[in-house]
Amino acid sequence: MPARRTAAWYEGTSRDTYIHTAWMRRGLPDDAFTGKPMIAICNTASEISPCNAHLTQVSAAVKQGIWAAGGVPLDMPVISLGETQMRPTAMLFRNLAAMAAEELIRANPIDGVVLLGGCDKTVPSLIMGAASVNLPAIMLNGGPMLTGTFRGHPLGCGTDVWRWSEEARAGKVTNEEFAASQQAMIRSAGHCNTMGTASTMGIMAEALGMTLPGSAGVPAPDARLLKFAHATGQRIVEMVEEDLKPSDILKREAFLNAIVALATVGGSTNAVPHLLAIAGRVGADLKLTDFDEHGSHLPLLANLQPAGTYLMEDLFRAGGLLAALNQVRDLLSDEAITVSGKPLSAHLDGAEIFDTDVIHTRDNPVQKEAGIAVLHGNLAPTGAIIKPAAASPELLQHRGRAVVFENIEDLHARIDDPDLDIDETCIIVLRGAGPKGYPGMPEVSNTPLPTKLLEKGVRDMVRVCDGRMSGTAYGTVVLHVSPEAAAGGPLGKVRNGDYIVLDVPGRRLYVDMPDDDLNAREVLPETEATFARPARGYERLYIDHVTQADTGADLDFLVGSSGSAVGRESH
Ligand code: FES
Ligand code: MG
Question: pTM of the prediction?
């Protein structure tokens, strides 16, 4: 048996060993301290992170698996981030959660970790933290919720909120109907049931190789999730024996597999900064343009909201992620191994599609070209992204007059002003929503449209923003413009009446004026005044150190790994 990391705490007869063992004992059997792998379950269960509230039940099944395989399970609550509840945005705290998870794993007597996440930011933060320690680690996603229905219609979490709220503003449904649908929206335990960020990141974790193959997308209340939980617990014990670490799994090829999966399922744009940030932790060579080069020409096969019709429960009954990936098997790299020790493609045999309206076959895709398009130009020198599958085809090449809003409050205050000089050909520019500017890069980019245009039947316009968009949202929205306005990006210099050109086929985004003239402009004081200026605390640390979206919006000093070396003795 190889020497365990935890032997540094528990082996021998010193006073320090006495302290570590005596305080931990609390009913653990004697042999827990004599070489059995100690496995921490990084548990993001929290009642104020409701998508993850059921994870303690999942953790119980993981524990049984760890005991069964000869390990010692230890539940370790970590920072949990509830997407819908946190202000100004859960994204502000992703790096804090990652840093806390990293330090907890490193500081404690632990040989391996199980990562339990679900809601949007919990999955990337746990993988980021675990990757920077690089002890054997396996992820299990808490799974999507079951489909709720309202008056016979299935409700997609998020997507139907965006859709119904615009219909209510347009007078197509009553405000009472809109409000009543709220009771049916969240039907069960689990995370959002659309192909939003939570579902996407569950799938990214599996495509990266960090989960047991086949586990992504198992609905939270489904008994099979607990079976996967048990198997996850068993597997981490073996992974400790094999010394199979995140750095063995998270190679460039794993990220390219994730990009293929992202396109195939029509995943969220939020996967882009999350994958870039994870890659940064392990030093994998991944660039923003890789998402376009390796993903944008791929077919969309999963017919799920927001790009399509169905919901996660349907994906699961139709065969799940592995059935979708089996259609693009030739595009997956065998170079990357998963937590199973084998490549992802080794798990695709027999992965059948049971409903070809939910998972389309390769020869009959939902859309021919999905994925993420990366745009450059004088408005986005280091890049911006758009998800063409969620956009209006006729707007993908568009030149329009800019109507500029300094921040989201300015937009809310003026968007419905009957005197606002705007029509459907204009381009709505929203700035001050980047990592530094807000702070935290909130999901405000899919701005509401002017009511006077909604009433005319307009349902989409080009929008350009340095913030993010909910993975459940749709529209011709250019996101993550980098550098952001608050970091000196040219987005801060656009003025009302400028003409902006969006050319998705040409991968261009620019103000229709000479670059030098745009760059020579001063940022107006009223623009400058809206940028966040926190004086203290985590927000201060964050805006001083956050990197731009095109490199993952991590904190600059968290990029890379500090490893799992055991720290100095505490007494
Ligand atoms: Fe938690 Fe959507 S709000 S997953
Ligand atoms: Mg979100």
Answer: 0.97
Contact 407, 502 (CB under 8 A): no
DSSP state letter for 487:
G
Q: Which numeric CATH code is attached to 373-533?
A: 3.50.30.80
Residue 326 DSSP class: H
Q: List all residues whose CB is within 6 A of at least one atom of ligand 1.
A: 51, 83-84, 119-120, 157, 191-192, 196, 198
CATH 3.50.30.80 boundaries in the chain: 373-533
Residue 518: per-residue pLDDT: 97
Query: Coil, strand or helix: which one is 186?
Result: coil
Nearest ligand (C-alpha, residue 122): 1
Task: Write the pLDDT tens digit of every residue in 221-242.
Answer: 999 999 999 999 999 999 999 9
CA torsion angle 405 411 413 418 (round to 10): 90
Largest CA distance in the chain: 80
**Atom nearest to 472 CA in ligand 1:** 2
What's the chain's average pLDDT? 96
Strands 112-117 and 72-77: unpaired
In order of 67, 482, 556, the CA distances from 384 in angstroms are 47, 6, 20
For residue 196, give the ligand 1 atom closest to its CA. 2
- Measuring CA to CA, how many Å separate 126 from each of 23, 201, 202, 281, 403? 27, 11, 12, 12, 39
Q: Is the pLDDT of residue 75 over 90?
A: yes
pLDDT score at 1: 46
Q: How confident is the model at residue 169 (pLDDT cuts 50, 70, 90)?
A: confident
Closest listed residue to residue 205, CA positions, set 187, 188, 217, 190: 217
User: b/e string for 14-24 if b means 16 or more Cβ within 10 A?
Assistant: eeebeebbeeb
ipTM for the predicted complex comes to 0.91
What residues are neighbours of ligand 2 (ion), with CB under 5 Å? 83, 120, 197, 470
The predicted-structure confidence for 498-547, as pLDDT tens digits, reads as follows 999 999 999 999 999 999 999 999 999 999 999 999 999 999 999 999 99
Burial (0-12, 13-18, 19+ Cβ within 10 Å), 560: middle
**Residue 2: is its pLDDT beyond 60?**
no
Structural contact between residues 201 and 120, judged by C-beta atoms closer than 8 angstroms: yes
Q: Which amino acid is at 178?
A: F
SS (H, E, C) 79-108: CCCCCCCCCCCHHHHHHHHHHHHHHHHHHC
> Are the CB atoms for 352 and 319 separated by under 8 Å?
yes
pLDDT, tens only, 410-468: 999 999 999 999 999 999 999 999 999 999 999 999 999 999 999 999 999 999 999 99
Ligand 1 atom having least distance to the Cα of 83? 3
Q: Which two tokens stand for residue 122?
A: 């919990």
Residue 160 confidence (pLDDT) above 90: no
Report the C-alpha gap between 194 and 160 in whole angstroms. Answer: 10
Task: Give kind and range of the element (H or E) at residue 316.
Answer: helix 312-317
Residue 35 falls in which region: left (phi positive, over 0), alpha (psi -120 to 50) or beta: left
Preceding amide of 435 cis, omega within 30? no
Handedness of CA 436, 439, 443, 447 (dihedral sign): negative
